[in-house]
Amino acid sequence: MTLPSWPELHGAVTHFPVAMLMAAFLFDAGATVLRKREWETVAFWMLAVGVAGVAGAIPSGLMTAATLFGASPTPPHVFLIHRAIALCAATAAIVHLVFRISRRDDHGTQTRAVSLMLGAFTALCVSIAGYLGGAMALGGAAASLGAAPPAPAAAGAVPAAGVALGQKLFASTQTGCRNCHKMDGLGGTVGPDLTHEARRHDTVEWHIAHLTNPSAVHPGSMMPSFSRLKPEELKALSAYLASRK
């Protein structure tokens, strides 16, 4: 049995605390409007469970970043925003829980107001972080799968020289391509399967542009730039991808 990758594990453990933190705010708001004290109790335990879930969501998210962007000096901007807001959400949720525990016997107006503000801020951060996470997980891959291939270059044929080097680069830890992409049944599932990539994009020029600046070709892409590769390595990797028919 193949163990899940960090990106897959992060996706699996994140949704539950997100649901708990969002629901905690809704129950707190409902308790205030409908004056149902028992709803405050439900909200408290949802908040507690959500904070417990954060203990898995944040570390798995950081490991996902290390897996995807560890070799890149410039992670995608959308990821940096996602990480910052997710950390804000986690911090706000913990502060909210500590506040609720410290004021457990106080159900006064001031305590409820502070609790609602903390809950609303947490829910807002969770919503934004979740949206950005979804954009990274689905937007880049969907765009890559759905994009129309550019017209073939005049030169047409994929250079034979360098394709073997490109294959080695694809499978190497230097690039980490297999962390996100499958090739012939091996690799990750974060990005699209590249086994038949040349059916979508069959020119070396397209792949060089994409590898150099992914977000310029597919806005919102979470793929890191490979501009750090030597020119001959970049061309070889592009030639290999353009040969995959």
Task: Please give the structural blueprint.
Elements: H1 6-34, H2 37-69, H3 77-102, H4 109-146, H5 163-171, E1 182-183, E2 186-187, H6 204-212, H7 214-217, H8 231-242
Explain this structure to me?
By secondary structure, the chain is mostly helical. The protein contains 8 helices and 2 strands; from the N terminus they run αααααββααα. The chain has helices spanning 6-34, 37-69, 77-102, 109-146, 163-171, 204-212, 214-217, 231-242; strands spanning 182-183, 186-187. Strands 1-2 form a two-stranded antiparallel sheet. It is elongated and about 75 Å long.
Can you describe this structure in just a few lines?
By secondary structure, the protein is mostly helical. It is built from eight helices and two strands; from the N terminus they run H-H-H-H-H-E-E-H-H-H.
Shape: elongated
- Based on secondary structure, the structural category is mainly alpha
What is the gyration radius calculated from CA atoms?
23 Å
Mean pLDDT over the full residue set: 83
What's the story with the biggest beta sheet? 2 strands, antiparallel
Oligomer: single chain
* Count of individual beta strands: 2
Key features of this structure:
245 residues, mainly alpha, two-stranded antiparallel ribbon
